[in-house]
Amino acid sequence: SPSDPALVERARAAKEKLGDKVFVLGHHYQRDEVIQFADVTGDSFKLARDAAARPEAEYIVFCGVHFMAESADILTSDDQKVVLPDLAAGCSMADMATAEQVAECWDVLTEAGVAEQVVPVSYMNSSADIKAFTGKHGGTICTSSNAKRALDWAFEQGEKVLFLPDQHLGRNTAVRDMGMSLGDCVVYNPHKPNGGLTTDELRAAKMILWRGHCSVHGRFGLDSVNDVRARIPGVNVLVHPECKHEVVAAADYVGSTEYIIKALEAAPAGSKWAIGTELNLVRRLANRFAPEGKEIVFLDRTVCFCSTMNRIDLPHLVWTLESLAEGNLVNRIQVDQETEAFAKLALERMLALP
Ligand code: 13P
Ligand code: SF4
């Protein structure tokens, strides 16, 4: 829907007043009304790097979700303030792994005698506590654009990986990109004693996948792929690696949001695409590439926004920018120092991946 012109003007004026003091980052899943004010847009990896590359900005306004703002705070200097326009913009996947559960899991691995062979690899979509756990135990962070490189690195350090918290990204990367079999992967369920696994299963596994998932990408099924192929002959199916393994296995291309955009930029006129990721991004891409004769549709017939990404709307952005312009620091995201030190270690290992 078109944004309210009065709010657009207020956001513009407040941003102009702040000038170089503010830098606005926008994740690809953000609404159009918010994206229009982003100084840069990107996937989780690009935004983490971009946040760290703006030392002159006093305020980093992060239009995305809580774990992204935490990562930006970890990677920026102490006098830079990271602001999340709505504190309720969390991520249900990140919430699926708590510090207590992960500590308990490590105890289970220790009891089974495998902990010393295990390297944790945590998806960016996790809390700062989980990133700190990862750093403390010699592991790295990954995003959907460098998961293979992170796993290559991890298997140089140890024999097994504990992959947190997205089982699908872990399984898809292991099987699709690393040549492992489904049987090399086991799923650790934090709600069951010993994760629901026997000692023998833990000893045999190469990939121990945390039982977490994205509720947005989890809605796509094999039916979505079969339906769209029947509906649109010759369609290219392109999905995000947070989708279930059966969806990824049936797709033609798989990649992060940044990869999806690049693939569509490079696509020839007249080509047809069904995209399996969040709907704000797919709609924006469909509108952007329609004049070039590229037909882009959403993979499923049902509507599929990320509800927490959508919490950041124009009214929240206006309130944030106007507050900062008046000298009121609102909604600051600040990770405590000890957590930050270990989480930073894990994030820096990711940034140093070849
Ligand atoms: P990327 O932007 O890294 O592809 O991640 C998708 C996502 O789910 C972010 O929450
Ligand atoms: Fe979390 Fe999924 Fe939303 Fe990304 S799309 S923020 S993983 S719930």
UniProtKB/TrEMBL annotation:
<feature type="binding site">
    <location>
        <position position="214"/>
    </location>
    <ligand>
        <name>[4Fe-4S] cluster</name>
    </ligand>
</feature>
<feature type="binding site">
    <location>
        <position position="306"/>
    </location>
    <ligand>
        <name>[4Fe-4S] cluster</name>
    </ligand>
</feature>
<feature type="binding site">
    <location>
        <position position="144"/>
    </location>
    <ligand>
        <name>iminosuccinate</name>
    </ligand>
</feature>
<feature type="binding site">
    <location>
        <position position="27"/>
    </location>
    <ligand>
        <name>iminosuccinate</name>
    </ligand>
</feature>
<protein>
    <recommendedName>
        <fullName>Quinolinate synthase</fullName>
        <ecNumber>2.5.1.72</ecNumber>
    </recommendedName>
</protein>
<dbReference type="GO" id="GO:0005829">
    <property type="term" value="C:cytosol"/>
</dbReference>
<dbReference type="GO" id="GO:0034628">
    <property type="term" value="P:'de novo' NAD+ biosynthetic process from L-aspartate"/>
</dbReference>
<dbReference type="InterPro" id="IPR036094">
    <property type="entry name" value="NadA_sf"/>
</dbReference>
<feature type="binding site">
    <location>
        <position position="44"/>
    </location>
    <ligand>
        <name>iminosuccinate</name>
    </ligand>
</feature>
<keyword id="KW-0963">Cytoplasm</keyword>
<keyword id="KW-0411">Iron-sulfur</keyword>
<feature type="binding site">
    <location>
        <begin position="123"/>
        <end position="125"/>
    </location>
    <ligand>
        <name>iminosuccinate</name>
    </ligand>
</feature>
<feature type="binding site">
    <location>
        <begin position="240"/>
        <end position="242"/>
    </location>
    <ligand>
        <name>iminosuccinate</name>
    </ligand>
</feature>
<feature type="binding site">
    <location>
        <position position="257"/>
    </location>
    <ligand>
        <name>iminosuccinate</name>
    </ligand>
</feature>
<dbReference type="GO" id="GO:0046872">
    <property type="term" value="F:metal ion binding"/>
</dbReference>
<comment type="function">
    <text>Catalyzes the condensation of iminoaspartate with dihydroxyacetone phosphate to form quinolinate.</text>
</comment>
<dbReference type="InterPro" id="IPR023515">
    <property type="entry name" value="Quinolinate_synth_A_type3"/>
</dbReference>
<dbReference type="InterPro" id="IPR003473">
    <property type="entry name" value="NadA"/>
</dbReference>
<keyword id="KW-0662">Pyridine nucleotide biosynthesis</keyword>
<dbReference type="GO" id="GO:0051539">
    <property type="term" value="F:4 iron, 4 sulfur cluster binding"/>
</dbReference>
<keyword id="KW-0408">Iron</keyword>
<dbReference type="GO" id="GO:0008987">
    <property type="term" value="F:quinolinate synthetase A activity"/>
</dbReference>
<comment type="similarity">
    <text>Belongs to the quinolinate synthase family. Type 3 subfamily.</text>
</comment>
<keyword id="KW-0808">Transferase</keyword>
<keyword id="KW-0004">4Fe-4S</keyword>
<comment type="pathway">
    <text>Cofactor biosynthesis; NAD(+) biosynthesis; quinolinate from iminoaspartate: step 1/1.</text>
</comment>
<feature type="binding site">
    <location>
        <position position="91"/>
    </location>
    <ligand>
        <name>[4Fe-4S] cluster</name>
    </ligand>
</feature>
<keyword id="KW-0479">Metal-binding</keyword>
<dbReference type="Pfam" id="PF02445">
    <property type="entry name" value="NadA"/>
</dbReference>
